[in-house]
Amino acid sequence: MKKAPKRSARPASGTPEGVSLNVRRPSFDFGALPRYWCGGNPWKTHFGTALMLVFPSGERFVVQGVRRYRKAITDPKLAEEVDRFCAQEGFHSREHGKLNRLLFARGFAGLARFEKLQSDTLKLMGRIFPERFQLALSASIEHLTSSFGHQALSQREELEAMHPVARELLIWHAIEEMEHKSVAFDVHRALGGGQAARVAGLALVVPMVLVVTYAIFLYLLAADRRLFDGKMWKAELVDAQLANLRRIRAGERAIGLFTALPRDVAAFLRPSFHPWDLDDRALIADAASYDPIAELARRGVANATPATV
Ligand SMILES: [Fe+2]
Ligand SMILES: [Fe+2]
Fold first, then answer.
1. Are 292 and 26 in contact (CB under 8 A)?
2. What pLDDT score does 281 carry?
3. Confidence at residue 72, expressed as pLDDT on a 0 to 100 scale
4. Ligand 2 mean position to 103 CA, how many Å?
5. Ligand 2 midpoint to CA 270 (Å)
6. pTM for this structure?
7. How far apart are CA 261 and CA 202, in angstroms?
8. Residue 130 pLDDT > 70, yes or no?
9. Residue 25 and residue 291: Cα distance in Å, rounded?
10. Average pLDDT, the chain
11. How many A from CA of 76 to the centre of ligand 1?
């Protein structure tokens, strides 16, 4: 018989005052997205694409992990956040799914196989792992997506170099990952879930994300006939990393979405850790008024598909 979840009578939401989960519902037109949407740089474009490819199935997995416990949440603030979290992830999944289909049609048909493999793996995890552990996995996955979101929003120069549609897609997604970053964690904690399960979840999820991202990245380089482009490898693995070292020595932040991963994984291991220990409020200070489609219009970029709100 299925064990009933433990109920919590005390406030369980750890989202700080002043942060609200805004469900923005943009609809992007990706038709004008150039082949190398990340500053004309194939390496960065293919790496970003590889990471984004797994979002729709990953988002369905985390929503499923959290939503099944919705009725067990007694803190009204957290219950409302669960609804908004599910809505935000639903729109992320829809927009990234549209982008993925465009990439399949643009000659990267092999991506569809990677997407299916990822989706089948997550479905299998949904069948073999206990539901409570799937919730711990959701909390771990959300820790990673908020780490990537933090990095993306911190690197304004990289964002400015992107094609406007890709930039607003990433800013929108990153802001909402920040806003809802503690929801899955708070639900797991409110139902009596412990840190050991969340750390076990992270130990499973981090290698999966690294293997899947780099496998897709190498496929994209090969499909684009750039796998043996020695000049590009030297520029990205030697020159760019030396530049990162100089930045770190100067007390600046290293460029790259994975560069904060060791710090953020280490933080997650602390017994008293809560996602808002890494305070992102300054990064999303203007988030409440942010509308990606309005931002595109403000910058003079037409988005053929109007926003749905
Ligand atoms: Fe998301
Ligand atoms: Fe998320």
1. yes
2. 93
3. 94
4. 23
5. 21
6. 0.90
7. 12
8. yes
9. 9
10. 90
11. 23
Which residues have CB less than 5 Å away from ligand 1 (the ion)?
89, 92
Please tell me the distance between residue 221's alpha carbon and the centre of ligand 1 in angstroms: 25
DSSP 89-154: HHHHHHHHHHHHHHHHHTT-THHHHHHHHHHHHHHHHHHHS-HHHHHHHHHHHHHHHHHHHHHHHH
The environment of the single-atom ion ligand 2, i.e. residues with CB closer than 5 A, is: 145, 177
pLDDT of residue 110: 87
**Ligand 1 centroid from CA 85, angstroms:** 9
Ligand 1 centroid to Cα of residue 89, in Å, is 5
Q: Which ligand is nearest to the Cα of residue 24, counting in written order?
A: 1
Average pLDDT, integer, range 204-219: 94
Cα separation values, 75 from 72, 186, 197, Å: 9, 10, 22
Q: Taking Cα atoms as reference points, which of 79, 66, 218, 197 lies closest to residue 142?
A: 66
Q: How far is the CA of 180 from the centre of ligand 2 (A)?
A: 6
pLDDT at 199: 97
pLDDT confidence of 10, banded at 50, 70, 90? low
Cα 133 to ligand 1 centroid, rounded to whole Å:
20
How close is the Cα of 93 to the center of ligand 1, in Å? 7
Q: Where are the domains of the chain?
A: 42-227+257-298
CB 42, CB 226: distance < 8 Å: yes
pLDDT in tens, 135-188: 999 999 999 999 999 999 998 888 999 999 999 999 999 999 999 999 999 999
Relative to the alpha carbon of 180, which ligand is closest?
2
Q: Which two tokens stand for residue 118?
A: 């990822």
